[in-house]
């Protein structure tokens, strides 16, 4: 292993980043020793701010974790199709589960994430040795809060590393100067998760709820600590591919490899973890600090405008990013701007000489077709168009037959231009990528409700009020999310939910709601994994597309109109039958095209998607440890799951 801590303190030298709505001061009191630093609340806060600042690196939460790490699922794809899906030198092959230990991104992510852990360990050790926590009063309370923040951030990082790599090195103390505690082997992920749960339980009492402008969701809140603990508990209760079979664990009957089985804990432990999740999810719901923004459009408009919501606080924790410094939300994922602004068009549509948001994360045709027509999430999430110059005309243009290349419209240049922080001016002035500075949301309230619905259904049933900590039923939690998606029409939303539940069962409806609500946000893949549904759902998506094309069940054309500006496509006019009047345009829809006799989408691209998941080892979704990391580990680390070192 590359010395995982030798260069990690470099993260402490990060420059300050401006967040969407406030400034986290990270000035380094480098001339001060630890004793001085951690016996002063001002200097201690600066060291905690450095942890937040280190989260904004590309290999942490500016790009890799919120966008790349969550690919591929049944509805979210990396933009690698056909032969490109085997390109193991980039995310295109690696996220199609054709992973390669030689992929350079792996070591970078490993080093950066462990660097953040080292920063957190330094803060925790410094506070533990501080004279201030031996006293009583405001200074002690503040130091205990700082320690709690560091522990929650460390737990978040370890949890994400576990979900990427499985069993990993685990250290809760800063590195010794003699490096004796640096070279360590793997710790079982279950042991790590148990320790993280303990850290979170200890930290929660010292954290405030988000409130006003004094303690916002740009810092670790009590709500997020509760939610993170619940998520870890459900993951501890769920399925994981293992390096070797564990005695007393349940082995999956589906998608389990003989050498590297997919297992979960026994029923008693599973029940314990679900009860723990119930307690902490109920704490969030009962407190009422967090709720959903009344409309979906309102929520995503606020995200794109970088407006911190101090009213509803749908976000439990959002990592503060910096304009032109961090966050590729809107660029690497989002509505596509494809090509430089040509001039001669209204300045309202000027996105600069770079003129490009790459939209590396794509959505699928079966996902788009799965939505009810009344569900507002469909057209907000799935962008079937892009801005580009075509036949000499610069305007929005439909994608046509792009069943595996739908853009995720949640992050949207068209909304971002109304920001007040100078983003639009920066984009218009630059021929290079401009980082959006949009905060990366680690958890929002609908995910809390989805986890709660799952827990309540598991423990008490879908309609029962027998919960120990909260009277809300599983159905009521699910209805709350669905009703907003149906623009507040509770009767229509619950009628649709009831129909789904009667047809397929309550849990499967939760699985569907998870996709409709959270696609593109780096959540679904890890929930599918703990449910042992990743492989099955990918197969289901492929079969759905194959059947639709072969049976001709997808419409041949999509008809649409432009808005009055003759630039913007009006999604409310989408029609799949015949044009209503002469003002309609048409584009080829998903499926068989007369111009594509080879059927490349069906016969070449579809089989390449996620093709490596079961090719060598069944259910091999975990990434390998980088070859360079292993070679410098002093023999402490090795790869598993059929990967070479």
UniProtKB/TrEMBL annotation:
Instruction: Give a yes or no for keyword Signal in this entry.
Output: yes
Keyword Signal on entry: yes
Predominantly, its location class is membrane
| Family annotation (InterPro entries) | SusD-like_N (IPR033985), SusD_RagB_dom (IPR012944), TPR-like_helical_dom_sf (IPR011990)
- State its location(s): Cell outer membrane
Signal sequence segment? 1-21
Boundaries of every RagB/SusD domain copy: 370-643
**Ranges of residues in domain SusD-like N-terminal:** 22-234
Q: Which UniProt keywords apply?
A: Cell outer membrane, Membrane, Signal
* GO CC terms in record: cell outer membrane
Would you identify the family this protein belongs to, as annotated?
A: Belongs to the SusD family.
* Record's protein name: RagB/SusD family nutrient uptake outer membrane protein
Q: Which organism is it from?
A: Bacteroides stercoris
| Organism phylogeny | Bacteria, Pseudomonadati, Bacteroidota, Bacteroidia, Bacteroidales
């Amino acid at each position: 292993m590359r010395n995982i801590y030798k260069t990690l303190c470099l993260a402490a030298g990060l420059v300050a980043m401006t967040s969407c709505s406030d400034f986290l001061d990270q000035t380094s009191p480098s001339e001060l020793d630890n004793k001085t630093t951690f016996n002063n609340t001002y200097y201690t806060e600066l060291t905690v701010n450095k942890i937040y600042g280190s989260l904004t690196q590309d290999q942490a939460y500016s790009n890799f974790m919120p966008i790349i790490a969550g690919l591929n699922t049944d509805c979210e794809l990396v933009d690698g199709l056909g032969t490109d899906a085997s390109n193991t030198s980039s995310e295109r092959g690696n996220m199609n589960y054709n992973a390669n230990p030689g992929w350079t991104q792996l070591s970078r992510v490993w080093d950066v994430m462990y660097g953040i852990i080292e920063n957190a360990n330094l803060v925790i050790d410094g506070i533990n040795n501080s004279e201030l926590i031996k006293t009583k009063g405001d200074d002690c309370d503040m130091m205990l809060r700082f320690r709690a923040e560091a522990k929650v951030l460390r737990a978040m990082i370890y949890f994400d590393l576990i979900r990427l790599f499985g069993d990993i090195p685990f250290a809760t103390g800063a590195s010794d100067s003699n490096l004796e505690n640096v070279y360590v082997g793997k710790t079982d992920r279950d042991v790590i998760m148990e320790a993280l749960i303990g850290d979170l339980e200890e930290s929660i009492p010292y954290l405030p709820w988000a409130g006003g402008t004094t303690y916002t969701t740009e810092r670790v809140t009590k709500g997020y600590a509760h939610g993170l603990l619940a998520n870890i508990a459900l993951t501890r209760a769920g399925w994981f591919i293992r390096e070797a079979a564990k005695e007393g664990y349940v082995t999956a009957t589906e998608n389990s490899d003989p050498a590297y089985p997919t297992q979960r804990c026994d029923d008693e432990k599973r029940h314990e973890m679900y009860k723990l999740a119930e307690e902490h999810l109920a704490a969030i719901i009962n407190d009422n600090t967090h709720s959903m923004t009344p409309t979906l459009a309102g929520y995503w408009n606020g995200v794109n405008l970088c407006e911190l919501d101090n009213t509803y606080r749908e976000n439990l924790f959002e990592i503060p990013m910096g304009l032109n410094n961090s966050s590729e939300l809107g660029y690497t994922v989002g509505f596509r701007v494809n090509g430089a602004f040509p001039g001669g068009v209204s300045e309202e549509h000027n996105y600069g000489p770079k003129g490009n948001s790459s939209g590396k994360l794509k959505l699928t045709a079966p996902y788009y077709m799965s939505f009810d027509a009344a569900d507002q999430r469909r057209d907000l999430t799935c962008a079937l168009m892009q801005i580009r110059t075509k036949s000499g005309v610069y305007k929005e243009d439909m994608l046509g037959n792009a069943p595996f290349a739908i853009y995720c419209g949640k992050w949207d240049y068209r909304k971002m231009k109304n920001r007040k922080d100078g983003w639009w001016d920066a984009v218009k002035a630059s021929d290079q990528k401009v980082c959006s500075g949009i905060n990366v949301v680690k958890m929002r309230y609908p995910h809390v409700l989805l986890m709660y619905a799952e827990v309540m259904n598991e423990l008490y049933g879908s309609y029962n009020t027998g919960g120990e900590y909260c009277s809300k039923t599983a159905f009521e939690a699910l209805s709350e999310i669905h009703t907003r998606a149906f623009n507040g029409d509770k009767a229509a939303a619950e009628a649709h939910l009831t129909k789904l539940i009667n047809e397929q069962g309550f849990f499967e409806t939760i699985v569907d709601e998870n996709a409709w609500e959270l696609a593109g946000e780096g959540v679904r893949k890890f929930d599918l994994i703990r449910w042992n549904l990743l492989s099955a759902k990918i197969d289901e998506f492929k079969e759905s597309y194959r059947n639709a094309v072969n049976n001709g069940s997808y419409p041949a054309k999509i008809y649409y109109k432009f808005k009055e500006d003759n630039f913007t496509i009006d999604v409310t006019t989408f029609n799949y039958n015949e044009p209503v009047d002469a003002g309609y345009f048409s584009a080829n829809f998903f499926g068989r095209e007369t111009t594509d006799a080879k059927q490349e989408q069906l016969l070449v691209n579809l089989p390449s998607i996620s093709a490596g998941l079961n090719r060598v080892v069944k259910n091999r979704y975990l990434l390998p440890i980088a070859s360079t990391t292993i070679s410098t580990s002093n023999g402490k680390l090795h790869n598993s799951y059929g990967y070479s070192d």
